[in-house]
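Internal ticket - ligand job 303, iron/sulfur cluster:
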Amino acid sequence: MVTRFRLPGGWSFPLGVLFSSRGCSFRCTFCQTTAFAPQPKENSLATLDRVLRFYVQHGIHFVLLLDENFGNLPSHAEDVIELLARHKVRWLVQSRVDLLLRNFNDWRRCGMEGALFGIESFHQDILKQMHKNEKAQSAFELAERLDRAGMYAQGYYIIGLPPETPASIAQDLRTLASLKLDVTQITIVTPHPQTEMWRELDSGYGIFEKDWSRFDTKHLVWNHPHCAPGVLESLLEEGFRACYGKDWLMRTTKKFLSARRAQKDLSSVLLGPVRSRWASSSRLPYLATPVPSSDQPVRSAVA
Ligand code: SF4
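stdout (structure tokens):
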């Protein structure tokens, strides 16, 4: 799975997607992972080794670790990081704020280029209601550390929880924009079937929407106690405009180029478009050989 990051002018470079594990042991009420993969499971190191070798052979030197919660299986995460180092790839990783803060220095030393993390809310009572088990202040700390280190930051934020009002959401969106993240994903709170939030919102307020295509986190699908229909959708637009203001593209591009310069790695930028073409899906061969059943040989080699 190869994706591309694009710089201004269409300048791009390829990123290989990697899931080192699936699932999560936490129980956030809004999260569909709690229904489809409530226990984290490793993908074997042998499998990951094959994929990484394939990426590097095809000119891909950046990896996007999109586990639901990287680090939820600490010893597997350590093995994966060693494997990434062996393949000399740099990586961006999706994880919880607390895990990112706890491992920040170690992971950075081992090639972490940036982080994707759920902020969800700036309010401790709402985080508690969602069973998120994070300190509201931690997201600020993480955003600041990433910024100071010149690393990529992507945050997820949810608007429209039952206690929120249009005025409180507007204020929170201004705070969100002040974090100056590289990518900010804002969603309207949406109940997914089989989650705790589905049960809470349906029994407390009523889920009225019957059209499943509107359960896309961009529409209000339940009876909000303080926000009339259409209000959250307008706030969502307002939030995106604030987070992707005039200085956004230049700021993010500068950060990326400074990081490459500091690492004496301008070749990733210069060769990016060639590598992107080389790694386009139409050119890549299908990785079809059988997946080894045991990860033992790779573990020994890493050790
Ligand atoms: S939001 Fe993140 S931490 Fe919470 S259950 Fe989902 S994957 Fe786990």
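Auto-summary: Residues 24, 26, 28, 31, 33-34, 68-69, 96, 118 surround iron/sulfur cluster (CB under 6 Å). The beta strands are 2-6, 12-18, 21-22, 41-42, 62-65, 90-95, 112-120, 152-159, 183-188.
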